[in-house]
Hints:
Blueprint: E1 17-23, E2 29-35, H1 56-64, H2 70-126
Antiparallel strand pairs: 1-2
Amino acid sequence: xxxxxxxxxxxxxxxxxxxxxxxxxxxxxxxxxxxxxxxxxxxxxxxxxxxxxxxxxxxxxxxxxxxxxxxxxxxxxxxxxxxxxxxxxxxxxxxxxxxxxxxxxxxxxxxxxxxxxxxxxxxxxxxxxxxxxxx
Length: 135
C-alpha cells in the first residue's frame, strides 16, 4: 500500500474516513474503509463503509471512488438556508425583545402619569372651583 494514499472524507457526511484491518488465523487479512462517525446502532451516526477487500489499496480505491447521493447536496443547501433563516429570526427576536422592553418602560411611565393626573383630578374635584388654577 502506498504511503501517500489519502482517504477522502465520507461522501455522505464529510467526516474523516478510517482504514480497518482484521487479521485471520493463518495470516489472511481483510481491509475496509468506514466513516469515523460510523455506528450501526446510533441513528445520529453515519452508516457508510465499504465491503471487505483482501488488499488495502482495493479498499481505499473503493472508498475514494464512491459517489455521494445527489439528494445530500440538496438537503445540505436546505439546511444552510434553514440555519440562515433561524439566525435571522433569532436576531429579529432579540430586536423585538429590546423594543418590547422599551415599550414596557414607556407604558409604566404613562401609567404613572395617568395615576398622578387621576389623583390630581380627584383632589381638584374636592376643592371649590375658585381654587382651581391652570397648570
